[in-house]
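pasting RpiB/LacA/LacB family sugar-phosphate isomerase for the record, 152 residues
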Amino acid sequence: MTIGIAADHAGFAQKNELLKMLTDAGYEVKDFGAYTYDSVDDYPDVVLPLAEAVSSGEITKGIAVCGSGVGVSVAANKVPGVRAALVMETYSGHQGVEHDDMNLLCLGGRVIGVVLMWEIIQAYLKANYDGGERFQRRLDKVIAIENKYIKS
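structre below
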């Protein structure tokens, strides 16, 4: 499994800590930036390359951090094939994958600490999509919405 990670200035410090934690845990991780702290960078610029990598299959699962987690979630979900969600606790970290095939986890660097982020990330990365009939039926409806409204 290849993990991608990205953050703007509001998640920059946390991203660097999480990158080390992921690497130390044995994950193959690709850093999509920001690579240096820039107090006026914009979250769409850092999350777009990560979201495109998730969409293309280059990355198995993505992690994005901004101040609240909302901005990266909104921007990432504009990319076809990306199912990004803002998560603040471990249950949704695994349930979002198991039931909704979430492939990009969004976190708020100014909202929760690195310890909780790490717990959420572990739940997210260990989870697998259930694929059961009701979950697939719902996912198919989401994909149909995406196909209708998001032009690739």
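Helices lie at 12-24, 43-56, 70-76, 90-100, 114-126, 133-149.
The chain has a mean pLDDT of 96.
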